Amino acid sequence: MRIQEARIEPFFAEIQASLGSEGINRDPETLRRYGENTMPGGDRSPVGVVYPASTQDAQTIVRAANRHGVPLYPVSTGNNIGLGSRSAVHPGQVIVDLGYRMNRILEVDERLAFAVVEPGVSYQAMYDELVRRGNKLMLDVTSGPPQGGMIGNALDKGAGYTPYFDHFGFACGMEVVLGNGEVLRTGDGALDAGNLINWHTSKYSFGPILDGLFTQSNYGIVTRMGIWLLPRPPAIRSFHFAFPDDDDLEQIIELCRPLKLSNFVPTLFRVCNDLYLCGSEGENPEYRASGGKRSISDEGRRALRESHGVGAWTVSGAFYGPSAEALEPQIKRVRDLFCQSGKARYIAHEEAEGIGPLQVAINTFSGIPSVGELGLLKWRPGGGNTWFLPGTPMDGKIANEFQRVCRKVYEDHGLDYTVMNVCGPRFARGLHVITFNREDEDERRRADDCYRRMSEEVARLGVFVGRAPLDYHEFHMGQAMASFREACSGIKQALDPNGVIAPGRYGIG
């Protein structure tokens, strides 16, 4: 995938003539940093980085790439930790860092509750702007890096925890530079007119809905997007329940489902196992003794739970309302329901505020970015981290079968079963964290084998992943039916005939 020198030099000369010297960086240290990731498969160094400052600059870059046959890899802020960071799928591509100069909040409409942003606008930047404006609106945040890009996360089908959890679903209206260099506007933005008053308020307009083509694909470069915002409620009160045993997951799912089907609880449920919560608080206390060869013991897990005041599973949710007092009846109803099980221990909002990992949950329900879960990167030394993201229907028996299968795969590979199930009415996404020592060749191999084995096991049970780390794009595309693969290739040929945008991303050539 390395680019011939005869192609790359004329490409960069053309970009420099158009964007200026500040639009290009080929410094070896810069290339090293842009190639870094946390995957088992290793870093992937680009041949250069370009920094567009506008949609027109992005068009210039794409057209030059077509003329010279240079593969591009666009990123927004590059904070997709555990899934690839800023690293391209293949070494030798040119990183298009959209976020470095395209980082403006273009509009905030407080009456209709939406914002329009460029790729470099992070959750922290958007939160800070809303606070500056009086904190009347809130955004849905991830529990990942506050500097993560809102557009990048939405296009990778990322999600949060409030009623606006579906980041792509609550996006409205895109501007896209296609692989042929042309600009496409989606939704009401497709109207060939200047004053587009519905572009970011009407998601489904005339003709086919094209927005989804640009999620987890390589058909174009999104340079702006509308994001819907939520009016900030006067009061937010969380509730939490700790369960003592691994197999309590079945009962938890059965308790959560009716509360979400009726939408009595407005947030999603965060159902975290002990290591997902405790793993953000420090290194595995047993790692050094085994040299990372064994999973943490049941005794070690119990000690961590007691130390941090959480359960084998801990359930978190929240209510919104006019005052804390007005929310007490809802919390009592949920508390009565969960405690009928005889196993749940209730953790009130005030108590949870003193438990670091549960404060992260409160922040996410409140639309406040936080860094707490980044501590999971330190659970084992060496900086290795990848995410396995399947899901299950909201059926307790099926969810429990999945946790047993995945827990065994982790243990067979000497790794530590770390997962949060994010539960809606009918479906729960499993966020499995594989933390490993990237500096240890054997541990890298075991982490890679663990991921692939779990993927095969859940596929056997009828489940696909929702997002994929960089190392496994081609692997997962190979699991898809032939007609799906052929459709993806056909769209690629139509929108990017020379294949210059992110070849290989999500397994699309």
TrEMBL record:
<dbReference type="InterPro" id="IPR016171">
    <property type="entry name" value="Vanillyl_alc_oxidase_C-sub2"/>
</dbReference>
<protein>
    <submittedName>
        <fullName>FAD-binding oxidoreductase</fullName>
    </submittedName>
</protein>
<dbReference type="InterPro" id="IPR016164">
    <property type="entry name" value="FAD-linked_Oxase-like_C"/>
</dbReference>
<keyword id="KW-0285">Flavoprotein</keyword>
<feature type="domain" description="FAD-binding PCMH-type">
    <location>
        <begin position="42"/>
        <end position="232"/>
    </location>
</feature>
<dbReference type="InterPro" id="IPR016167">
    <property type="entry name" value="FAD-bd_PCMH_sub1"/>
</dbReference>
<dbReference type="InterPro" id="IPR016169">
    <property type="entry name" value="FAD-bd_PCMH_sub2"/>
</dbReference>
<dbReference type="InterPro" id="IPR016170">
    <property type="entry name" value="Cytok_DH_C_sf"/>
</dbReference>
<feature type="region of interest" description="Disordered">
    <location>
        <begin position="23"/>
        <end position="45"/>
    </location>
</feature>
<dbReference type="InterPro" id="IPR036318">
    <property type="entry name" value="FAD-bd_PCMH-like_sf"/>
</dbReference>
<dbReference type="Pfam" id="PF01565">
    <property type="entry name" value="FAD_binding_4"/>
</dbReference>
<dbReference type="InterPro" id="IPR006094">
    <property type="entry name" value="Oxid_FAD_bind_N"/>
</dbReference>
<dbReference type="InterPro" id="IPR016166">
    <property type="entry name" value="FAD-bd_PCMH"/>
</dbReference>
<keyword id="KW-0274">FAD</keyword>
<feature type="compositionally biased region" description="Basic and acidic residues">
    <location>
        <begin position="24"/>
        <end position="35"/>
    </location>
</feature>
